[in-house]
């Protein structure tokens, strides 16, 4: 790595011991640049971070993204609104349903279509199931980042139950493509309600295990408490949303403040913490799982009867204008901005991805902490790389 | 606050803002020279407090290049859409709002590489998503690439 | 003095938190019945996918080797990835009229994202998702399939 470092007047230094000492001294004073990623297990995807280190202390972080930039927004300019849906799955694959829903809600808003109540309920339920599944996976991988491999198996065990529910109703485990403008692709499976209720009873028993296994654990506490602070002003200014933003006290829950689908029918708390350190980002997600289960319990028995989709024309042409829809995905605020010129394809579509903004704050969060803490901080931000690169 | 009340308040601080029709959010456009000062007022004003910039979008309007800012207030929860445009396609320049909302740093870098709009006073205007030797601005409507499948 | 007390309580808490975690893992150690791991591929025989599982697009045929596809090409237009090619030919029916019928319904599994649009938009419900999921092959061309079977004809009554 020495080539990367500029030593002042290197020609004058010889291999005499005193000169060598001087060289060592100079090198120690300078920042040491290393690459973390693009293939690093703790970046959860192909993200490259260029770190400037001083000893073990991180002085600066330069994220380099775009390894999986697919130009989805540009691709969408050639696709009809029905066809766009399946691409949004591939942004943040762990909140596939939320992304689908955002596009559908935006198109429905533009066309002024009122979707049946049943659709709203089902969408909300699947949203929350997806959130649970995503947070479970985050919990596993966060544990694994910190060296707790046991956590990984316990989280995946419970996540499997949700994926089975998804598979039975939507046909896919991860990228559901279950929404279409106007409603859903098909009705819920007859077993759906029974299985969700079974799952909630099951998971209410299993979630305390998460706390026993990891939350109280002395190693986790030492590595997360007081590590990686994000102040409220910075959270707002950097646009850090989702559980990561709420851990800093930024009340940014779209479900609460700009309700969509059936969220106005459910009672739930917005989880807010104030310190904004890694531990509270962790806690916020664990608490959110409890809240998600509460929402599910309130809605699952009340799914109204009705159609699973509104009547839609086969070719959708949005009236000229601009439409924006915000939803709360698992990692923060996801937004769809459609500019239509009256054609069957959008003139410009933009996805506001939560991870993109969350990543921009990584530099100020992890600066002046140890490089090992960066792993914990990155894990607690729960970045999903395809969402950043789009 | 309803959109009409918001409109009044904004007209008070910036009479030159041109409002446009939008059912959902209050939308206005502002000349690019005034953007920075206006943005500062939007965030600084106690009655408006637009402190959360949640989206920056570049749009190629063919005649001009447009940048759209979506603003939210974490206190009052009202939303405002600010647009500004430049007709210069060769060397488009717009003031950066990085120093007001830090999140703009990444968003502006993205707009820069995809649309070629340069942001004045941006601390670190480099490419973010594309490879370093990429030629052209792919999200512009006149961008041609043989690999794009026509349908 | 205080620091010693703190040191001892810290050690106590740390050990306690470790024991709490061990209790959970210990519980599953002595309750092997609660283990959910499946032994794939040994359990291939018992493994049943859910009925709606999206493994691949198939065209169901009945016992007389008849399918419902009229060769209209709507699925081809609706597929976002261009993974379907419908080839139709003109044939003469018994009463002398020209009619377009399906020749080959070509499906590129390698390009399919299982969005379900072809199935949803097909006017005669000729397509369906199949449950097959073991698609790994050594050559890509094997993933291009002709969905209508050789010699198959259009089912009676489908327009
Ligand atoms: S499968 Fe359906 S949509 Fe496709 S060509 Fe046949 S009848 Fe038409
Ligand atoms: S499922 Fe979707 S991607 Fe696959 S062939 Fe049908 S329309 Fe095309």
What is the string of SSEs of chain C from the N terminus onward? HEEHEEHEEE
Which architecture of chain B would the CATH scheme give at its second level?
A: 2-Layer Sandwich
Main sheet overview of chain C: 3 strands, antiparallel
* Outline of chain B: globular
CATH fold description of the largest domain in chain C? Alpha-Beta Plaits
Which CATH C-level class of the largest domain in chain C is it?
Alpha Beta
- Secondary structure class of chain C reads alpha+beta
* Record field, number of beta strands of chain B: 7
Largest interface: A-B, 38 and 34 residues
Question: How would you name the oligomeric state of the polypeptide chains in this document?
Answer: heterotrimer
Give an overview of the whole structure.
The complex is a heterotrimer of chains A (390), B (151) and C (159). In chain A, 49% of the residues lie in helices and 13% in strands. Chain A is an alpha+beta fold and 390 residues long. A three-stranded antiparallel sheet of chain A has the order 1-4-5. A three-stranded antiparallel sheet of chain A has the order 8-9-10. In chain A, helix 3 (81-88) runs antiparallel to helix 4, helix 6 runs antiparallel to helix 7 and helix 12 (278-300) runs parallel beside helix 15. With 151 residues, chain B is an alpha/beta fold. Helices cover 22% and strands 25% of the residues of chain B. Chain B contains three helices and seven strands. Chain B has helices at residues 3-13, 35-44, 104-115, and strands spanning 18-20, 26-29, 52-60, 65-72, 79-86, 93-95, 118-120. In chain B, the strands form two sheets. Chain B has a five-stranded mixed sheet. In chain B, strands 6-7 form a two-stranded parallel sheet. The model of chain B has no long low-confidence stretch (mean pLDDT 83). Chain C is elongated. The longest helix of chain C is centred in the first third of the chain and has 29 residues, at 2-30. Chain C has two domains: 2-34; 56-154, Alpha-Beta Plaits (2-Layer Sandwich). Chain C has helices at 2-30, 74-78, 117-121, and strands at residues 56-58, 66-67, 84-92, 98-108, 128-130, 144-146, 153-154. In chain C, a hairpin with a 5-residue loop joins strand 3 (84-92) and strand 4. The model of chain C has no long low-confidence stretch (mean pLDDT 84). In chain C, the strands form three sheets. Chain C has a three-stranded antiparallel sheet, with no helix packed on it. With 159 residues, chain C is α+β, with helices and mostly antiparallel strands. Chain C contains three helices and seven strands, in the order H-E-E-H-E-E-H-E-E-E. The chains are: A alpha+beta (390), B alpha/beta (151), C alpha+beta (159). Chains A and B meet through helix 9, strand 8, strand 9, strand 10 and helix 13 of A and strand 3 and helix 3 of B. Residues 69-75, 86, 122, 124, 126-127 of chain C line the site of one iron/sulfur cluster.
